[in-house]
Amino acid sequence: QFHMIKYEDLRWCESLGQGSFTRIFKGSKIDIRDGERHVTDVLLKELDANHKNCWESFFEAASLMSQISHKHLLLVYGISVHRSKNVMVQEFVKFGALDLFLKREGSVSVSWKLDVAKQLASVLNFLEEKNITHGNICAKNLLLAREGDASQGSSPFIKLSDPGINVTMLGRDVVLDRIPWVAPEVLEAPERLELECDKWSFGATLWEIFNGGQAPLQGLDLERKLQFYETYKQLPSSEWTELADLISQCMNYQPAFRPSCRSIIRQLNSLITSGTSRELIAVKKLQ
Ligand SMILES: Nc1cnc(-c2cc(N)nc3[nH]ccc23)cn1
Predict the structure, then answer these.
(1) What is the rounded CA–CA span in Å between residue 235 and residue 216?
(2) Going by CA atoms, what residue is nearest to atom 1 of ligand 1?
(3) Which residue has its alpha carbon closest to ligand 1 atom 15?
């Protein structure tokens, strides 16, 4: 269920960092189509040689992405296996991960943030309709294809990246470090990764988007992160009560009580009206 890409048709450029058991590089792939040579920018995601046992999970994540297509889902061109290298070849998304963009950008408008939140909710709704759980929703896995001019309010465009190695394959410490994105029920039983888990992660991602891309609970060690769940804590809530309500609905410790995607989208739409007028009032006060 994969397009196999020949290793010699790939070029590695600069390293762009790493994920869980993976290293990522900017690169390009060469296609000869109807006699013409096409060079495409790609993101090359290499599985660490010492985690070869995860290769099925590595490719399973990618195959999930290539069996369905949606405008806000990252395009996976295929995989390339050569000697000890397992490489996933993805579309290169120009402006990279949302968390880094938000940290760099600092002030983007409320409508810009709500736009991104709605796009994420729409792709989650699409996955929910296909009963597909992503399992790793977070701002780091939201890629910015279009910045949108934050001041001029032209809209951003995001793509949801692949979930990476399945959480059942990750060590306990790696899973603990994903608190508060990973749903509490996944800690006890990672194999029980269900649709509701993505709702919980959506809540944590919403928190990131409205807190300048900073990681929630950053700086807490794994022990304190675990206590956060054991004592049923919630993330620090925004003064904007409707937003805080939506985040805490998504981050309900009872999976069944989390809202459906349709409800999330409905609540985001009403946030747009209340949020932008709040912003207008705030701006007027400044004048
Ligand atoms: N599928 C993907 C994933 N990441 C990127 C990307 C783009 C960029 N400008 N800086 C980066 N820094 C790290 C990753 C990255 C692109 N495409």
Answers:
(1) 7
(2) 92
(3) 96
Cβ 114 vs Cβ 267: under 8 Å: no
Q: Are 272 and 117 in contact (CB under 8 A)?
A: no
Judged by phi (left if over 0) then psi (alpha if -120 to 50, else beta), residue 93 lies in: beta
How far apart CA 57 and CA 63 sit, in angstroms, is 10
Our answer on whether the CB atom of 22 is closer than 6 Å to any ligand 1 atom is no
Q: Which of 15, 22, 24 to mutate to test the pocket of ligand 1 (most atoms within 8 A of CB)?
A: 24
Three-state SS at 79: strand
Is 258 exposed, middle or buried (CB count within 10 Å of its CB: 0-12, 13-18, 19+)?
buried
Distance CA 219, CA 221 (A): 6
- Quote the pTM value: 0.94
Q: Pocket of ligand 1, candidates 26, 29, 41, 142: which has the most ligand atoms within 8 Å of its Cβ, to mutate?
A: 26
CA distance linking residue 214 with residue 209, whole number of Å: 8
Instruction: Write out the E strands in the chain.
Output: 10-19, 22-33, 36-47, 76-82, 85-91, 142-146, 157-160
pLDDT tens string 117-156: 999 999 999 999 999 999 999 999 999 999 997 566 679 9
The helix or strand, by DSSP H or E, that contains position 170, with its residue range, turns out to be none
Instruction: Tell me whether 0.90 is exceeded by the ipTM.
Output: yes
